[in-house]
Write a structure and sequence with these properties.
With 352 residues, the protein is an alpha/beta fold. The chain is built from ten helices and 14 strands. Helix 2 links the parallel strand 2 and strand 3. It is elongated. InterPro entries: Peripla_BP_I, SBP_2_dom.
Amino acid sequence: MADDAFTAEQALLKVTPTGPADKPWEQYIGGGLVDTSKYKKAGPHKLCFSNASVSNPWRVVGWKVMQAEADAEKSSIASLQYSDAKDSDDKQISDIKAFINGGQCDALIVSPTTSDALTPVVEEACKSMPVVVFDRSVNTTCPVTSISSIGGNAWGIAGARYIAENLPKGGKVLLLRTAPGVDLFETRSDAAMRIFKEAGITPVGSEFTGGDNAKTKAVVSDYLSRFGQIDAVWVDLGAMSVAVAEAFEDAGQPYPIITGEDQEDYLQKWKNTGFKGVAPTYPAYQWRTALQAAVKILDGKQVPGPKWVLPQPVITNENLDQYVNLKMPPLHYALCGCEDLPGYPERFGGKR
């Protein structure tokens, strides 16, 4: 199964998406369109959103994106009820049951905490209203559509391939990982290791840092003292990339290749210092897609499904300039798809 997903996502990275070129959140890769005429009802619509959490910067930006999209579509949306599960399966199950029993939802949007635990309650919700799932999936086909970008394999492939293509012969690679046993991170690192193996690269180490900047710097410093030189650092989460660069600065060492993500602090560091970098992305614009999908379904318009695969761009030296935005805060995600939404940039912490 993992092999199938790796091969499929590797192929999808090369596919040209369908949809408006300037609106990637409306694009889709492969798949077909779902007839939603049976869900059509007069608006404005009452939407309900069960969120896993806002426990990291990506989710904070995403929730702001969804709220801004709701403001942009206020003529079609009567209300957007919200619940935050705080990363608890039990709380999210309870939240969704409350939405079902409350009878105030024309459609339900779910960003699940975990796939297995949320599947039964999502199936229950599907019996009384159209459901849109995004970010993580559930193990049922009952949602009208399940939205995400290409996936963790594609993310891991992009960074590792760049290292494989740019590493000096015999160069030393260090992998920095966030936490063990988390599907997303395991998928990213497994894909990266597969690329390294194919390229004949054996990393000198793989360490967990918990995404903590101080621990990241300590680990990098330790490896520099042990090996004298590190030529590339692959990360499974871009939040630690700036700390990696700072560790090399502290050691008086030249920058290695450093992979990252579309978080502004990394993009700006990469631009300012000129190290070799690449940023796989997990676009926050999918939060916009999810809300748009719910409105379209209730309007009886077709949507991509049952799986809606969004494009997952890779930021490279060639296109870096279009994503660096000095007016946005360090923890902002460049692929928010939010630049044309009400309140931008201030509601996202930016300045004009």
